[in-house]
Design brief:
Helix content: 40-55%
Number of domains: 3
Number of helices: 12
Strand content: 15-25%
Number of strands: 13
Radius of gyration: 23 Å
Distance between the termini: 44 Å
């Protein structure tokens, strides 16, 4: 066991040294990146999970080299470089509000095929790639965020081959009819097929400008009127697409939009009173959430910002909290905005009459 640990330790140190040299750039930058990428892909796609790379990320922490390695790990988990082509996983976050009158719940599991085909065609022409193919189902952001790259690769291959409902990917979802009248965030899941030496940087501004006009097809695929109901009882689905993005960025963006929407809804109902408003928050690592306590003279409420796996406070919570505060609370009425240790947060919550 000691020999194995020593071998692993030496392998880890060599890898960390390579990452630090790569992070500094230089003439050997390309060669080092290829070697580092091979290590990451080998663990993700062959083993199915990270070992040496995971320890390297922990060792490097918040250093520039660690951040750059994390970005490369994310890229390797959603962009698969094969010998003759590159497969890049993409998503389209779409907020949908299902409304039904007179107790007529609507089930909607699949986007409309004609609109999805139009989206694929216009994206392929705009990006100049070999092909763009979307799955014909809807997905939950957290399931996509936690999907194994090894499974995603096989899923993308089947999708590319023409299987519109390939097996082996993340579990699909349907719009929740129990949440009629409320916004729900769902995702279209697809793949961009490109030449092996021509990466499609879908998240860059130039690509997003080209793709922006075609968001409507994603929206239309989830917006329709059910004519099976009698006149005056028609049910419609309203939708907003937030773009076609890489897997990680798309899910991060979509979940931030939805969590901020929930926070805004809470603040709209919050009675501020005359003494001002206090905001206290703490990271609850065990619950993988940020706990937010909002208190004023008339009332105190608690809000949970559920984190994605590996996400930090800076991942979106603090930025969205500041934006929502600015929208709903006059600056003169903000008494305090304070990050706390979880122990102190619980004590403060009890003082305010909240059982957290």
């Amino acid at each position: 066991m000691a020999v194995v640990e020593q071998m692993f330790g030496r392998q880890l140190q060599r890898f960390v040294d390579s990452v630090e040299r790569w992070s500094l750039g230089g003439a050997v930058d390309g060669q080092l990146e290829a070697a580092i990428r091979n290590q990451i892909c080998g663990e993700l796609l062959n083993i199915g999970s990270l070992s040496v790379v995971r320890e390297a990320l922990a060792s490097l922490g918040g250093k520039p080299a660690g951040k750059r390695l994390k970005a490369l790990v994310d890229d390797c988990g959603q962009r698969f470089r094969l010998e003759d082509r590159t497969l890049s996983v993409i998503v389209a976050p779409v907020a949908v509000r299902l409304s039904a009158q007179k107790g007529q719940p609507q089930h909607h599991r699949y986007p409309r095929t004609s609109d999805i085909r139009s989206l694929e065609t216009m994206m392929q022409a705009s990006l100049g790639c070999i092909d763009v193919v979307f799955d014909r189902r809807l997905y939950d952001g957290r399931a996509l965020w936690g999907a194994r790259p090894k499974d995603l690769l096989e899923f993308c291959k089947r999708l590319e081959e023409g299987d519109e409902l390939p097996e082996g990917g993340p579990p699909s979802v349907k719009l929740a009819d129990k949440r009629v009248g409320q916004w729900q965030m769902v995702y279209l899941l697809g793949v961009v097929v490109s030449e092996p030496d021509k990466d499609v940087e879908i998240d860059e501004d130039d690509a997003q400008r080209k793709l922006m006009p075609w968001r409507c097809y994603a929206e239309w695929s989830l917006y329709e009127v059910d004519h099976s109901l009698r006149m005056g009882e028609m049910s419609e689905k309203k939708s907003i697409c937030y773009g076609m993005l890489s897997l990680k960025k798309g899910v991060q963006y979509g979940e931030n939009v939805f969590r901020a929407h929930l926070l805004e809804a809470l603040m709209k109902e919050f009675v501020q009173g005359a003494t001002g408003v206090w905001f206290y928050y703490a990271l609850d690592a065990q619950a993988n959430a940020v706990r937010l306590l909002i208190t004023g003279a008339p009332m105190t409420v608690e809000f949970r910002w559920q984190l994605l796996r590996g996400e930090t406070l800076e991942g979106g919570f603090e930025k969205e909290l500041d934006r929502v505060i600015k929208m709903y609370v006059p600056l003169s009425e903000v008494r305090e905005r304070c990050e706390m240790h979880l122990f102190d947060y619980h004590r403060k919550a009890r003082e305010e009459g909240v059982s957290s």
